[in-house]
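pasting input
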Amino acid sequence: MSLLSIKSLSLTLGGQPILRGIDLEVEKGEVIGVIGPNGSGKTTLFNVLSGFLKPTHGKIHFKQTDMTGMAASERARIGIGRVFQNFGVFREMTLEENVLVALEALPKEQRLVLGDLKKAVHSTLKLVHLEDHAKKKANSLSGGQMRLLEIARTLVSGKELFLLDEPTAGVSPKMTGQIADLILTLKKEGKTVLIIEHDLPFIQKICDRVIVLDVGEIALQGKPDDVRHNGKLKELYFGADPTD
Amino acid sequence: MNYLLHILTMIGLSIPNILGYNLIFGRGKFLHFGPIATSLFSSYAMFLTLRETGNYLSAFFVGLLASLLLSSFFAWLALRLESDALGILTIAMHLALLSVVLNWSSLTRGALGLPQIPRITGMLSLPVFASVSIVIALLWIFFMVRVHRSWLGRELSALAENRAHAEALGINRARVTLSAFLIGGLGATITNTLYPQYIGLLHPNDYQFSNLIFFILCVVAGGPGSVRGVVISIVLLTSLQELIRFLPLPLGLIGPMRLLFFGLILIIAVYIRRKEIFPMQRSV
C-alpha cells in the first residue's frame, strides 16, 4: 500500500494550467527526485502536497487518508514535513527556539513520546553539529547550516514524508555532502523523501527513483541512471538537437 | 506624595491593556488598531450593567464577556484579512462603536458619559487604589513574561516571521491568533474595570482614537514584543505625559502639545524600529 497516492492532480491558476493530471504512487521508504526545467511545476506540486495551494482537480491520499482539503498545519500534524527553497528557519529566533517551536507544534501524543523537549532540542542540534550555537539567533548561520537545521528540525519532529525543495541551493560543496548524509540518514530510518533538485549527480547518489516534470505533467520517470541517459531528458532541458 | 501616587496609579492601570496589545501588535505583528474599541465596548457593557444591577461581580463578568467577544471578532478578522485591511477595519470598528456610544444618549448619556462610578469597597483611598493597581500590574507583567516565553510566544513569533513556514511545522494559526487576541481582551478588561473607578467617570473622550497613539508609542518605543522594554516605556511615557502639564503653556495648548510631542517620538521610534514592526514576509 502506497504511503502517498496522487491521482489526476491538476491545478489551474489564473486560467493557466500549472499541473496537469499528475498520477504518482510513493512507497514508504522511497527517496524520489523531482527534476525538470524551470517553470515545470515542481515547487507548485510541493505547495499542493503541503496544503498551500488547493488542487483544481484530483485527490491526494496520505496513509490512506484523503488529505486533499486539509490545511497546511493539519498535513504537518499527520506527518508531512516541508523544507523550503528559501530557508524555512525563523531568523529572529535562536536555534534552540527554532527546534522547540517545531516540537511544540506536534500533536500531544507525539510530544509525550519525545519526553523532555529540552533534551530533544539538544540532540537535534547535536545531530547537525550546531549545539554550540544553541543560544544564537538563526540569522547568524550560513545558508548550509540553516538548511541542516531545517532538515534536522523536520526529522526530529517525527515526520514520515519529507518534501525537500532544492536543499542544496546556495550551499557550499562541503555542506552539500553533509546534507546528502542527512538525507541518507532519513532513508535508513525508513522515511520517505521527495526531493526537488537540479544537481543530477546528487540525485543519482541518493534517489531510488526520479520523476521528470515538464509543463506540469510527468514527462519521464524511472531509476536515476536510466533517466539520466534518456535522450528525452536532454531534450527537455536543452530542446531537440537539430542535427538528429 | 499624592501626585506621585497618582502617577504610579496611572502606570499600574496602563500596564495590563498595553502589554496585552504588545502581544498582538508587537509580538504577533498584527496591524490591529482596535484595542481602544475593545476597552470602550467592555467598559460600557460593565458600567451600564453596574448601573442597572449595582453588583460589581456580575458587571465585571459582563464587561469581560463583551471584551472577549469583540476580541474574538478581531481575531476572526485577523485570520481572514491581509494586514492592511485588518488595520482599516479595526479603525472603522472603533469609530463605529464610538459613534454608537456618543449617539445612543438614552442608554449611554452620549458625550456626558456615565458619572459617579463607585469604587469597590476597600479601594476608596488613593494609597490603597495605587497599591492595588501596582500589584495587579506586577502580576500581569509576570503573567505576560510567562506567555511570551511559552509556546504561544514562540508560535506567534514564528507566524509573524513567516506564516507559511510556521504552518508547515503544524502551528495552528487560528488557535494562536485567538489566544493572543483573548489575552489582549483580558488586559483591556482589567484596565477598564479600574480606570473609570479611579476617576469616578466613564467618558467617551477617554476612548478617542488619539489614545491609540499612546499605546502604539509605548510598544514601538519599548521594542515590539519586549515585555521589559514596553513596561519601561509605559513608566517613562506616562510620567512624561504628566510632567508636560507643568510646562509654562496656556491650558488649551497642553493637550495639542502633548499629541504633537508624542507624535514626534512615534515618528522617530517607527523609523528606528521599522524592520521590527513591518518584517518582510518571505514567499513559499
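fyi The interface with chain A takes residues 151, 154-155, 157-158, 161-162, 164-173, 279, 282-284 of chain B (CB under 8 Å).
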